[in-house]
Amino acid sequence: MSTLDPAAAAPARPWSIAGSPLTWAALALLLVYPFVASPFFIYQVGGYALVLGIIALSLMFLAGYGGMVSLSQMSAAGLAGYMVAILGSNSVGTGFDWPWWVVVPMAVLVGALFSTGTGLLAVRTAGIYTIMITLAIGMALFLLTQQNYAIFNGHSGFAGIAAPVVLGVDWHQPVPFYYLALFVAAACYAAVLYVARAPFGLALQAIRDNPRRMHALGFHVLAHRVAAYAFAGVIAGLGGVLLVWFNGRISPGTIGVDRMIDILVIAIVGGIRHPAGAFLGAIFFVILETFAIDIVGAERFNTMIGMLFLVVVVFSPDGLLGLWGKARRSLQRQELPNN
After folding, report:
1. What domain range is 54 assigned to?
2. How many CA atoms are closer than 13 Å to the CA of 240, on its beta-carbon side?
3. Which of 14, 34, 17, 13 shows the shortest CA–CA distance to 176?
4. I need a labelling partner for 286 at 20 to 30 A (CA). Which of 138, 224, 258, 296 fits?
5. 140-179 pLDDT, tens per residue?
6. What is the pTM of this model?
7. Are the beta carbons of 13 and 196 closer than 8 angstroms?
8. Is 184 part of a structural domain of the chain?
9. Per the structure, how many domains does the chain have?
């Protein structure tokens, strides 16, 4: 099976991992992480990985449960981030200065609408054609933001985008931002698992496996796929809001083709069979991005990422989650003779 063809990528029982002891142990570890880590690791590693994981989760939902590999999820997130800069305040002084509790829903809505529009154009295609159409849409948005100065401030983008202070808590500080990102990530993770078990999610997975049969049974195949893009757009929009608060700025480079590919790499390396893979891949990617440059240099970083990507997908097409599954099954087989 091709790595980019998630025709059978989704698990049959998504709640089985959600309620496992390993999941609760991971959640406990994430909760206590700020108490044992330095501010740098809390913010630059933990917080950033959670943000990228949220955006990759939107891609995982489309690819794993819908069989649609979209490269425009970073674009939806970036557009939501631009809305935070435009509707809020920025250093250019062109923002509308709306309060954050108005800006955030509007930004997420714009990201969802962009993703829905992408779905309307892409749902009639499959495989490599879906990838190319969503890549073209993402590149179109990138060029628009780079060349438009009236709305997007061109190549420079926007800086000075401050995270809000709520009840005296500055969400830009490492610990508050980490817990905010963790809360949003947990909510999106739970929402994806719930939707996967809901009638809509089950129908979407059946459409992924056999769209002709589902159409014959009376299901509106295109409507389900477009709705999946809309749901994924909400998740990507939330990730985009957190991303612009994390960076304090946004520019066309945020949604360039390299960043779109990064989200795809994160989802595949982590494991596109389950939502947990998006966050596992994000942790793997952020650690490499943070520390590998000091070892191999910035000019060789992408080469190293590509090599590690090939190693993972060759030995485990299911990503790091697949490696964990193989190791667990191997240990179980070794324990059988002793029992």
Report:
1. 15-335
2. 39
3. 34
4. 138
5. 999 999 999 999 999 999 999 989 999 889 999 999 999 9
6. 0.89
7. no
8. yes
9. 1
